[in-house]
Write a structure and sequence with these properties.
Chain lengths: 624, 601
């Protein structure tokens, strides 16, 4: 690690910490129905939405109605995105003519399974991309379908988190708020203003915002090159803020048009965590004890630091094989040292490791480097972050309701150890809460492990629909532990609604598209529905007054407990799988064996179709 | 074990139940013999010395000593009489003297004894809410382990193929891994913990109507304690003689003692005793003198003795005041001050006069039981608020509450007040426990979350509560609360311990499973187990042994000491959380070595 690198990470955290309270307070006021400083400006817009949609602002919903609203809204969003993608060839704003006869030769076909995968992906706030944006989608799809979902899927996550907070805050109530109102407020007052300001900032730093077709230029060497452009800034800003992560370009934030400068790099990482971090304060504020919010923040911060300070040193240490070959891997004034494979020279190791940690702490999934090229331990961190259900700040809303479910499990076990029916924030944690929290935790573990296991052993017939013939692992770039990591990461990313890719695997086949789509659906609603059920159950309960016999949930003890529960449940679930993936890869690497790009498992496998999704830093989105 | 003890107890109980004959009084007043099992509620029976009372009922006529040892285990006979709060008798108990008429209140199969039999046999034992929730958690963890183990097989296939070394572990190895991991064995212990908890309650001679009640007592936030008998000794006692101006202390003591010689009330006796202790005044044989005792009446509100021409009187302040003034005496100004001072400290002033001369005041005081203050402090440390219920006026109540260290008091409490108080507490989300014996306590007992009825109490009270204290010792509520807490702590601790065990077991088994495929995994074999076979075997053996080792802990319960929740959690997390993680390492290592020693693997 370099002093600069450590300083970079610490400054980042301090800025995040400084923004947590103001933003959290603003959101608490907003969702408690108070006026904020943006009301004079945005209230008319909010009212217009209600007028157009017929939503009654003061009506309340039971948790079942709330959940039904979330599902209905998601379903409509899914159908909309699916249909628009399938029809993009007939729609406007398609200068490159995707899905038409005059599409570029290297364009990806918008097949039903790819459209399904993408629609599910953006509706569930995953933004997994089995395609490269600039070679697949029209501007209209990017703007009307994907960017819109970037806003509303994030707003839906915030709404669910707010509903769960209300469950804790309310006493003997049968309602947990109104989804349509929460959705509207989250969009209009939180996401819209932040994204608007951030998009302008990005434009100012050089991110394109245009509807013109891709530019053909002649390079200095005299070659002809097509440079992809588009309405990038508007999508980029919400992609970061809404923890969506779906890049306009295939290489995501490694692309100079998505992330042109060190300053945009810093602010984009900040944008990943800022709302989720703020929500911890909102939580404390709304339950009437800000210490509770800070305790949750502290647990998240601890895990964040643990992750980044395993990932960063691993990357900085680099590959011992190279050092053994006499390659200088130490950082000097002129070179970063360490493992620079798959990293942008512009950003270096510290900010890449920080991004990789933050993007998987949250359910963002944007990348500015290639996770597949990380050292085994460096790559383990993003993967374990996903597998612990992205509760380290987490997705907007989803991070908070996720960690609260873990808190429920932790408080339940620990609460018994103080000799009382466990309570969290004055609410008794009983059968229903435990059951629902376990359902959520098991649902994601189930899809990750089962789909990964199926892909490990599945073989496909000739001329079948699902996949090119042969084993499903033939889609991998690597064999051995690294290959296992690639598939495990893909399903972890899908089930946890992250969307980042380890890459090194061709996922644009019906088998991977559909199973990943299913994983995203189960991961999203397997958490939202239990969270809302708990919200409903908690709201109906009395509030038990705090006594000396109550387990305090605002001190270091609770923070340690929460961290312990998250790590232990994650480890118990995934230790066997991880030990055959990154753990053994690390040990083997130290013994001098590597697993790079062994294509022998798949004779006839064409590497050309492999990197069809974001993360491929070396493609840089420029084609000729 | 606990269950076996319950069985044995049930058998003894059942023996007493086997058909005794009942003497039923027919509507025409005749006595007929019928089997006890034929008695219905509403029948009236008569029982005399050495009869077994044929069923639960209320004494409607007479008074008798009854041997209730069969249910209480207490050999000292108790008195049962018609009217009042000691009218309930239990079927199966034996009349030792005199004769009583009993109106039967329960039908066959529903008697107290029947219920007790079913209870101790555990036939009615339902899982408590916390137990169910914990079972859900354990089922969830089991599912997670099942997922992890079942999917490990395809991962192994992939790894073996791509590494080109080793073989996929056999099904037996996967099964061993699963067996080591799944916490179902802890699930089995959970019900044992529940039974042991009920049993521990029973060892305290408290009969819990359900495990839920025991568990709920661990959650109690507010404890309602009757003042008399629980916080204070049953009666007031004289603690001080305060002379009026110009009178010596011993003169007051002398007069007070003389006036109390015939006073058989505990207060009167305490005056005699105090005078004897303090001033060596011996009880005199009043028969030597010409003495006429004036008994206490509600009208005069004083008692005393006319002795050798002296008119010694003691009684309520204003009554004596009136008496002295009638005799033409003077009342010193300081007198009212003394009276008020005593009242303010929670005592009862008793004025003493000799004819027209006001001698002074006897200070009667409620004596707070020894150790009560410490117990209340313990309760406070556990986060439980204690509330004293008393019929005294608020001034007296406050003074006693202060002395006993209770957190709050309810003075001049009527049954309705009690009820309202419980409802108010519950409205604020608190769980309330109380003890009671009288019929007028029944509604409050039913309303309270944990109601402990005294066995000496009325049937109505016993029906209303969810526990019956066979010793009729109201302070036992505190022990019950501790047992309830211990029950939950034991469950939580064992679950934590077992889950943490699993983390360390991975370190034994996973490297062993893939040692041939990835020799590098040997680095994770931090216990340095010798061979893959011995590693798996050692883990399985450890798993089997740890369950056996946990059984006594499950039955005895985790040590419980009243302290704050945070302190308790910290302690238990260290012992069962961190300890649970560390413990398997040395033991699995040891088992591995032993296996080597005996050439078993």
């Amino acid at each position: 690690m370099t002093a600069n690198g450590v300083l970079y990470i610490l400054v980042f955290f301090l800025v995040l910490l400084a923004l947590t309270k103001p933003l959290g307070l603003y959101m608490a006021n907003l969702f408690e129905g108070k006026r904020t400083f943006l009301h004079p400006l945005l209230r008319p817009l909010e009212r217009l939405v209600y007028r157009l949609t017929g939503v009654r602002e003061d009506s309340e919903q039971r948790w079942t109605q709330y959940a039904a609203s979330v599902i209905a809204f998601s379903l409509v969003g899914f159908l909309f995105v699916y249909i628009i993608q399938r029809l993009q060839g007939f729609l406007l704003l398609n200068p490159m003519g995707f899905s038409t006869g005059h599409a570029p030769g290297n364009a990806t076909a918008m097949t039903p399974d790819l459209a399904f995968n993408t629609a599910v992906s953006f509706m569930t706030n995953t933004n997994w991309q089995s395609y490269g944006g600039e070679t697949t989608l029209s501007y209209f799809v990017q703007m009307a379908a994907l960017t819109v979902q970037n806003f509303v899927s994030a707003a839906a996550g915030i709404a669910v988190a707010i509903a769960l907070i209300r469950g804790f805050a309310r006493k003997q109530a049968n309602s947990i708020g109104n989804f349509w109102v929460d959705l509207t407020r989250a969009t209009v007052y939180v996401l819209l203003p932040l994204a608007f300001v951030f998009a302008l900032f990005l434009c100012a730093r050089g991110v394109p915002q245009t509807l013109k077709a891709y530019q053909k230029v002649t390079t200095i060497e005299g070659a002809a090159q097509t440079i992809a452009v588009g309405p990038v800034a508007s999508q980029e800003s919400i992609k970061m803020l809404g923890t969506n992560g779906g890049g306009f370009f295939n290489t995501n934030s490694a692309h100079p048009f998505e992330n042109p400068t060190p300053l945009t790099n810093f602010t984009e990482i900040l944008a990943i965590l800022i709302i989720s971090s703020g929500l911890t304060y909102t939580f404390g504020r709304m339950v009437g004890d800000t210490r509770q919010g800070w305790a949750v923040f502290a647990a998240m911060a601890f895990l964040f630091f643990a992750g980044v300070f395993i990932c960063y040193p691993s990357e900085q240490a680099g590959n011992p094989q190279l050092a053994r070959l006499g390659v200088a891997t130490a950082a000097t004034r002129t070179q970063p040292g360490g493992n620079m494979e798959g990293k942008e020279v512009r950003f270096g190791i510290a900010s890449s490791a920080l991004w990789a940690t933050a993007t998987t702490d949250a359910s963002n999934g944007s990348v500015n480097s290639m996770h597949d090229s990380y050292t085994p331990l460096g790559g383990l961190i993003p993967m374990f972050n996903l597998q612990t259900d992205e509760v380290i700040f987490g997705g907007v809303g989803s991070g908070l309701y996720g960690i609260l479910l873990y808190a429920i499990v932790g408080v339940f076990i620990a609460g018994l150890m103080v000799g009382r029916t466990p309570e969290y924030l004055g609410k008794k944690i009983e059968q229903k809460e435990v059951k629902m929290a376990m359902v959520a935790i098991i649902a994601t573990a189930f899809v990750i492990l089962v789909f990964t296991a199926m892909s490990m052993v599945a073989r496909f017939a000739k001329n079948g629909y699902w996949n090119p013939p042969g084993p499903a692992i033939a889609n991998l770039n690597n064999s051995g532990p690294h290959g296992l990591s690639e598939i495990l990461y893909a399903y972890s990313s899908g089930a946890e609604n992250n969307g980042s890719a380890f890459a090194g695997i061709n996922v644009n086949t019906p088998w991977y598209n559909l199973t990943l789509g299913l994983a995203m659906l189960i991961g999203r609603f397997g958490f939202i529905l239990p969270a809302l059920a708990i919200a409903g159950s908690l709201a109906a309960k009395k509030k038990v007054p705090t006594t000396n016999g109550t387990l305090p949930t605002h001190g270091a003890l609770f923070v340690g407990l929460l961290v312990g529960v998250i790590v232990v449940i994650g480890a118990l679930t995934f230790f066997p799988a991880l030990s055959l993936g990154p753990l053994v890869e690390h040990l083997v690497m130290r013994e001098g064996r590597l697993f790079s790009s062994l294509l022998s498992v798949a004779p006839g496998f064409s590497p050309a179709c492999a990197p069809m999704h974001r993360g491929a830093a070396w493609m840089l989105g420029i084609w000729s | 074990m606990a269950e076996a003890r319950g069985k044995a107890q049930a058998d003894t109980l059942r023996k007493t139940k086997t058909d005794s004959m009942a003497k039923r009084i027919t509507s025409r007043g005749k006595i007929e013999f019928i089997p006890a099992s034929k008695l219905r509620a509403g029948d009236v029976v008569t029982c005399e010395a050495s009869d077994i009372i044929p069923g639960d009922g209320e004494v409607i006529e007479g008074i008798a000593t009854v041997d209730e040892s069969v249910i209480t285990g207490e050999s000292a006979p108790v008195i049962r009489e018609s009217g009042g709060d000691r009218s309930a008798v239990t079927g199966g108990t034996k009349v030792l003297s005199d004769q009583i008429k009993v109106r039967i209140t329960s039908n066959p199969g529903e008697t107290f004894l029947d219920r007790m039999i079913t209870l101790v046999e555990g036939a009615e034992r339902q899982k408590t809410p916390n137990e169910i929730a914990l079972n859900i958690l354990i089922a969830g963890m089991t599912l997670i382990f099942l997922l992890a183990v079942v999917t490990l097989q395809p991962f192994a296939v992939f790894s073996v193929n791509s590494a080109g070394a080793g073989t996929v572990p056999s099904v037996a190895v996967f099964v061993s891994l699963l067996v080591c991991l799944i916490p179902t064995t802890i699930g089995g212990l959970l019900s044992a913990i529940g039974i042991a908890g009920m049993d521990r309650v029973m060892q305290h001679n408290v009969l819990a109507m359900s495990g839920k009640a025991v568990e709920a007592s661990g959650d109690v936030d507010t404890l309602l304690l009757d003042k008399t008998g629980t916080i204070t000794l049953g009666n007031r006692q004289a603690v001080e003689f305060i002379p009026a101006e110009g009178v010596s202390e011993s003169e007051v003591a002398d007069a007070a003692q003389l006036s109390s010689l015939a006073d058989e009330t505990p207060e009167g006796r305490s005056i005699v005793v105090l005078a004897k202790q303090k001033y060596r005044l011996r009880g005199r044989h009043v028969s030597e003198h010409e003495a006429r005792f004036i008994p206490f009446t509600a009208l005069t509100r004083m008692s005393g003795v006319d002795l050798d021409g002296r008119q010694l009187r003691k009684g309520a302040g204003d009554a004596i005041l009136k008496f002295v003034q009638e005799q033409g005496g003077e009342v010193p100004a300081s007198f009212t001050t003394i009276i008020n001072n005593i009242a303010r400290t929670g005592g009862t002033p008793l004025a003493v006069a000799d004819g027209p001369r006001l001698l002074g005041v006897v200070h009667l005081k409620d004596i707070v039981k020894g150790g009560i203050k410490e117990r209340m402090a313990q309760l406070r440390a556990m986060g439980i608020r204690s509330v004293m219920i008393t019929g005294d006026n608020p001034l007296t109540a406050a003074a006693i509450a202060n002395e006993a260290g209770v957190d709050d008091f309810l003075a001049q409490a009527t049954p309705k007040d009690k009820m309202d108080f419980i409802k108010k507490e519950q409205g604020q989300g608190r769980l309330v426990a109380m003890t009671g014996d009288g019929t007028n306590d029944a509604p409050a007992l039913a309303q309270a979350d944990v109601g402990v009825a005294m066995n000496t109490g009325t049937m109505a009270a016993k029906e209303a509560g969810n526990m019956v204290d066979l010793d009729s010792n109201p302070t036992k509520l505190i022990e019950i609360v501790a047992i309830g807490k211990q029950l939950l702590i034991t469950r939580g601790s064992l679950t934590t311990f077992s889950i943490m065990n699993d983390v360390s077991k991975y370190f034994a088994i996973i490297p062993a499973m893939f040692a041939a495929t990835y020799p590098a995994l040997e680095k994770l074999n931090i216990m340095r187990l010798r061979t893959p076979q011995s590693a798996v075997l050692a883990a399985v053996i450890f798993n089997a042994l740890i369950i056996i080792a946990l059984v006594p802990l499950a039955l005895r319960g985790v040590r419980y000491r009243p302290q704050s929740a945070a302190g308790m959690l910290r302690r238990n997390l260290w012992i069962y959380g961190v300890g649970g993680f560390i413990a398997p390492f040395p033991f699995i290592w040891l088992i591995d070595r032993l296996l080597a020693l005996f050439h078993l693997a």
